[in-house]
Amino acid sequence: MHSRFEPDRQLTVRMLVTVFLLGLLYVAFVGALLVLLKSTLVVVVVAAAVLVSQYWFSDRIALYAMHGRVVTREQQPQLHGIVDRLCATADMPRPQIAVSDTDLPNAFATGRNADHAVLCVTTGLTRRLEPDELEGVLAHELSHVAHRDVAVITVASFLGVIAGLIVRFAFYSQLYGGRGRRDQNTMAVLAAVIAVSAVVYSLSFLLIRALSRYRELAADRAGALLTGHPSALASALTKLDGDIARIPSKDLRTASAFNAFYFIPALGDHSRLARLFSTHPSLEQRLDGLAKISAELGRPA
Length: 301
Fold this sequence. Notes:
Elements (H helix, E strand, L loop, with lengths): L8 H28 L3 H17 L1 H8 L2 E3 L6 H14 L5 E5 L6 E5 L5 E6 H6 L2 H17 L1 H28 L7 H44 L2 H15 L4 H7 L16 H5 L6 H15 L4
Parallel strand pairs: 2-4
Antiparallel strand pairs: 1-2, 3-4
Helix pairs in contact: 1-7, 1-8, 2-7, 4-6, 6-8, 6-9, 7-8, 8-9, 8-12, 9-12
GO biological process, one term: proteolysis
Subcellular location: Cell membrane
GO molecular function, one term: peptidase activity
């Protein structure tokens, strides 16, 4: 699918490198477990089947998890109108549009490709933003679909879940399947499995977070160039960052599990160390990037 969204070669390269490195990492991981354990192959097959299901039905799973519902043009004429204009400008298929009835102001796009994509916004988002700000957020989310990074981040994130399933199954099968053979050798194997899994999880975690931060900057740029109004997107970012801080912490902690897919993180830590593990760049970085685009377009920031 070739759209008129501003292409980002650096994002494409980063996605390819991340997937390649994660692939090598998990091949080595499974290989190590096959050497250490004899019962891993079944789990690998089951986990692979789960991964395929996750990829194929990612749009439905995300909507279910976020309590989103697909809405018609009659139910949400403003949303449909904005998305229609953006898709016509970008020359891309129109995704399904969904709404999640929550006060948390946010949005996300999901789906394995442009023909099977869903763009979901919360009622808290539509209530807080002006039409031009909402357009900027929707353009940002549509650019994720055009760049295909939604599918990449979905698969990359799920590889960590597969690793966890494998380790958990291996741990219990080794611990309880030995029937009295829980000797020093068994404990050494368990220690080795835990050590290998910890290294794999840590490396995959850092790779995914680095890709996630860059894809948000790429979507900011592509969305702002499509609308031609980077200041509207900057205004939405500033407004939502301040409003999210007033949402009860309990609700934010529940929603933070989906941070990697959100327009803006539900719960963020602005310390220097936390930025290394964050799914999003800092607000300052995003605003600086949009200010540069305003300068390129010859408009005030």
